[in-house]
Amino acid sequence: MNNFEFKNPTKILFGKGQIENIKNEIPKGAHILMLYGGGSIKQNGIYDNVKIALADFKVEEFGGIPANPEYDVLMNALKIIKEKKITFLLAVGGGSVIDGTKFLSSAALYKGEDPWEILSKPIRTEVGMPFGTVLTLPATGSEMNSGAVITRASLKQKLGMGGPGLFPQFSILDPTVVQSIPKRQLANGITDAFTHVLEQYLTYPIDAALQDRFSESIMQTLIEVAPKVIANPSDYKAASNFMWCCTMALNGLIQKGVPTDWAIHAIGHELTALYGIDHARTLAIIAPSHYMKNFEDKKEKLAQLGQRVFGIHSETTDEIAKKTIVALEGFFHSLDIKTKLSEYTEDYKGTAEIIEKLL
Ligand code: NZQ
Ligand code: ZN
After folding, report:
1. Which residue blocks in the chain are alpha helix, DSSP H?
2. Does residue 314 sit in helix, strand or coil?
């Protein structure tokens, strides 16, 4: 096992009815900017519950953060933060709203000329404006990590940022929010979380027995609950397990002391920037081919995954590893996630060359 340091300061409030406890987590007298997306929270009641919980605070609002949070939109929120002298940010949404809020947390205290530098250089955020989150879509793990990915459509760029100043102070994980999530987003969430585990697990053996078992248990649980959540998003037991898996998949724990990969995400982000394909779907396009192309380096862990998670037994390591890639693609298909770029765009010629240059 490699040496590591581990610190995750985000406080999790998990379960039904936790939204009302937001008021105990935000400093008294805070001037809050509540941030959200395209309006789903106004239809499913989350907006009303949050507003009730914030009754004793001075609150401004900024809605309209799009999926793949857009830099130009966030710059309008930054103006409000400065003009109204906001002191605390509250993200109410999925990964896009939370990531957008992380960018604002950093940009609000940024001393340089142009906040785009935080992404283009990139600049690590040591201290950001304090913020909390109410997670409405289990998927990214952004609610308990310190990373964010921001899009700037005019430049066709999607860039990452992060730093120890960008952990949420708290995150509310109420699995009842899963009820209103459309099937497409549920499938995306399962695929994203599953691939987060793969990126941190599917490298080469390093005798990190506990990290391997953590990873395998998250993947096994996702495989078990996926059909239940998709068939009935109101199934609280399934939704709870789905939500906690997504958070645990990317809160830093399973990557400690082990090599990680993240090539699938790096290439996937470029596919989103070029074609607007949903984040999770880009991962399903890349993962099977990535594992075939890097088969020799990854076959030991592929075979371990096959045996322990997909229950594949065969004669040789090579055989099991190959069957594992087929099983993985089958899992994505079972969620109705397509795994070929040509199934998302007709205009895909030359994509590999473009991305190779960018990376
Ligand atoms: O905008 P609203 O109206 O809220 O609707 C959203 C959006 O249309 C909807 N939604 C969310 N919660 C809902 C709901 N609809 C009904 N009921 C609810 N309870 O779902 C749609 C997608 O939301 P989005 O936040 O974009 O999805 P997701 O959570 O998958 O986030 C994707 C973004 O996160 C980044 C991705 O690159 C992408 O930009 N990632 C962030 C990571 C991180 N910070 O650690 C890691 C990931 O690998 C990923 O890169
Ligand atoms: Zn992801």
Report:
1. 22-25, 40-43, 46-53, 71-83, 95-108, 117-120, 183-201, 209-231, 236-249, 263-275, 279-293, 295-308, 317-334, 351-358
2. coil
> Are residues 155 and 190 located together in one domain of the fold?
no
Name the closest ligand to CA 71: 1
Question: Which atom in ligand 1 lies closest to the alpha carbon of residue 137?
Answer: 12
Q: Residue 136: nearest ligand to its CA?
A: 1
One domain for residues 206 and 306: yes
Alpha carbon distance 300, 231 (integer Å): 34
What are 213-223's pLDDT values in tens digits? 999 999 999 99
Is the pLDDT confidence value at 146 over 90? Answer: yes
* pTM listed for this prediction: 0.97
User: Stretch 106-116: mean pLDDT, rounded?
Assistant: 97
Are residues 152 and 257 both part of a single domain? no
